C-alpha cells in the first residue's frame, strides 16, 4: 500500500463529485484505498466484495498483473504521441485485435476516451455517413425511452432518462424516441429474455412513417439497457429493429458500453443476440476500467463511404487529443491478453445458470417486486417507499457497503455485474450478504 493510501483527505469540499449525493457523501464518506481481484479495501481497512465490477468496467478483476505491468512499461517508453497525422504502432495492433473479436464485418475502429465520447462519435459518424453517400436529408436520430448513452449533448438527446435531460434546454433537435420495453406486469421474474414486448420494435415503423424514412439517419439502443436498471430485450425485439432499419436504410447502433467485452458470455451482445448492428459503441471493459478509453466499431461499408476525395484531405473531421493514446492502448492490449488467457470473454456463459439460480433465490425477500438477469448481469427491483422513491434501494446500498458488499442502485433497482473472474463461492458470498441486507428492514 502506498504512503497516501491510509490518509483520508480532511477537506472534501472542493471536489464536486459526479452522479453523487454530495452532501450525504461528505457527511459519511465511502473511500476505497486499494483493490485486488474481487475485493476493494476501504480506508478503514475493510474488504468489500465488488458485485459491480467498479462501474461495469473492471471485467477482469482488480489490479491484474499483466495490465499493471503494461502500463508501467509504456509510461517509461512512449508516454504520448500526437493523435492527428501521426501515430504509434500499438494503436494499430489494438484495432486489429479488436476487429478479431468483433462481429464479422465490423472492420474499423475509432478511438475515444469514454462511453459518452463513443456515443457522440457514433452519432456523428452516422450523420456524416449519410451525407457522404449523398443522403444528407437523413438527419434524425432515434433513441429510446429510459436509454442511457452517457452525459454529453448527443447522448442525452437520444437518451431517455428524464433526470439526465430535463435541466439542459432544447438538446439536439430532430430526435425521436422508441418506447421502453419494461413491462413488469407481464414479465416480472423472467429468467433471461422476456416473452412480452418484442412487438414494441414495430413502433419504429410508426416513427418512420411519421417523419418519412428519408429523414432518419440512425437508431441507437443499448442491447441490454443498464443504467436505467437493467432492461433485457424481449424475445424478437432486436431482430425486428434490425429488419426495420435495413428496410429503410437506417443505421442501427448498439451502445455496448456495458455489454461489450464478455458481460453476456460472448465478446459483444451483438453476437449473443445474433443481431448485427452497423455501429458498436464500447468503452469501460476495453481497458478493464484502468485507463480511460473507448472504441467505436463500424462496418467497411461505413468506413469506405468516407474514403474518397483528394488523398491529402482529412476524411472525417473528428477526433480527440487522446484517441488511441499509448498508455490506453498498452492497457487495452494487456486487458485483451488477460481476457484471452483466462477465457473471460466467454466465462459468463458458464457461470450464467448458477448466477441466475442464486439471484432468483432472493425472490422471497421483502419488497422484491421483480428480478431479472442475463449473462453475468442481475437486477432486483424493490417496491419504492411511498413518497420517497429511490430511498429503499439507496438504504440497501449503504447497508451493503457497511456489510462488505458493493452493489449499485438506480431508482429503486439494485443492479449487479461482478467482475467476470468471480467464483461460485464468491457468488454465494454475494447473495448471502445481499439477502441479509434485504431481510434487514430496509
Ligand atoms: C450504455 C452506456 N453508454 C454510455 C455510457 C457512458 O460512459 P462514460 O461514463 O464512460 O462516459 C454508459 C455508462 O455507464 C453506458 O452504460
Automatic annotation (TrEMBL):
Keywords associated with the record: Aminotransferase, Pyridoxal phosphate, Pyruvate, Transferase
Entry EC number(s): 2.6.1.18
Cofactor (UniProt): pyridoxal 5'-phosphate
SUPFAM superfamilies listed in its UniProt record: PLP-dependent transferases (SSF53383)
GO molecular-function term, one example from the UniProt record: pyridoxal phosphate binding
Any Pfam family: Aminotran_3
Enzyme class at the top of the EC tree: transferase
InterPro entries, per database record: Aminotrans_3, Aminotrans_3_PPA_site, PyrdxlP-dep_Trfase, PyrdxlP-dep_Trfase_major, PyrdxlP-dep_Trfase_small
BP terms from Gene Ontology: biotin biosynthetic process
Family per similarity comment: Belongs to the class-III pyridoxal-phosphate-dependent aminotransferase family.
Protein's name according to its UniProt entry: Omega-amino acid--pyruvate aminotransferase
Amino acid at each position: 500500500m502506498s504512503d497516501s493510501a491510509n490518509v483520508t483527505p480532511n477537506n472534501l469540499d472542493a471536489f464536486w463529485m459526479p452522479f453523487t449525493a454530495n452532501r450525504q457523501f461528505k457527511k459519511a464518506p465511502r473511500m476505497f484505498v486499494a483493490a485486488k481481484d474481487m475485493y476493494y479495501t476501504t480506508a478503514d481497512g475493510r474488504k468489500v466484495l465488488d458485485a459491480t465490477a467498479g462501474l461495469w468496467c473492471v471485467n477482469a478483476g482488480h489490479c491484474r498483473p499483466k495490465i499493471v505491468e503494461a502500463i508501467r512499461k509504456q509510461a517509461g517508453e512512449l508516454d504520448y504521441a500526437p493523435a492527428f497525422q501521426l501515430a504509434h504502432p500499438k494503436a494499430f495492433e489494438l484495432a486489429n485485435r479488436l476487429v478479431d473479436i468483433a462481429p464479422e464485418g465490423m472492420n474499423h475502429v475509432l478511438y475515444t476516451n469514454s462511453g459518452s465520447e463513443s456515443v457522440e462519435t457514433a452519432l456523428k459518424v452516422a450523420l456524416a455517413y449519410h451525407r457522404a453517400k449523398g443522403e444528407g436529408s437523413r438527419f434524425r436520430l432515434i433513441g429510446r425511452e429510459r436509454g442511457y448513452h452517457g452525459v454529453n449533448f448527443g447522448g442525452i438527446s437520444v437518451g431517455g432518462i428524464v433526470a439526465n435531460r430535463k435541466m439542459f434546454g432544447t438538446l439536439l433537435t430532430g430526435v425521436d424516441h422508441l418506447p421502453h420495453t419494461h413491462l413488469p406486469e407481464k414479465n416480472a421474474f423472467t429468467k433471461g429474455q422476456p416473452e412480452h414486448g418484442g412487438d414494441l420494435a414495430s413502433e419504429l415503423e410508426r416513427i418512420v412513417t411519421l417523419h418519412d424514412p428519408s429523414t432518419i439517419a440512425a437508431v441507437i439502443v443499448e442491447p441490454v439497457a443498464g443504467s436505467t436498471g437493467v432492461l433485457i430485450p424481449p424475445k424478437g425485439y432486436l431482430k425486428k429493429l434490425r429488419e426495420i432499419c435495413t428496410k429503410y436504410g437506417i443505421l442501427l447502433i448498439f451502445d455496448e458500453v456495458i455489454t461489450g467485452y464478455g458481460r453476456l458470455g460472448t465478446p459483444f451482445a451483438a453476437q449473443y443476440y445474433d443481431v448485427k448492428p452497423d455501429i458498436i459503441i464500447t468503452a469501460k471493459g476495453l481497458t478493464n476500467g484502468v485507463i480511460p478509453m473507448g472504441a467505436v466499431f463500424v462496418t467497411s461499408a461505413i468506413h469506405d463511404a468516407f474514403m474518397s476525395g483528394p488523398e491529402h484531405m482529412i476524411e472525417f473531421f473528428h477526433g480527440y487529443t487522446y484517441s488511441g493514446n499509448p498508455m490506453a492502448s498498452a492497457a487495452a492490449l494487456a486487458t485483451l491478453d488477460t481476457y484471452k488467457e483466462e477465457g473471460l470473454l466467454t466465462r459468463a456463459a458458464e457461470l450464467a445458470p448458477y448466477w441466475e439460480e442464486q439471484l432468483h433465490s432472493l425472490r422471497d425477500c421483502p419488497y422484491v417486486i421483480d428480478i431479472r438477469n442475463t449473462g453475468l448481469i442481475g437486477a432486483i427491483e424493490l417496491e419504492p417507499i411511498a413518497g420517497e422513491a429511490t430511498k429503499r434501494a439507496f438504504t440497501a446500498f449503504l447497508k451493503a457497503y457497511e456489510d462488505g458488499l458493493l452493489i449499485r442502485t438506480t431508482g429503486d433497482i439494485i443492479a449487479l455485474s461482478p467482475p467476470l473472474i468471480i467464483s461460485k463461492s464468491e457468488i454465494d458470498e454475494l447473495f448471502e450478504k445481499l439477502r441479509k441486507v434485504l431481510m434487514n428492514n430496509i
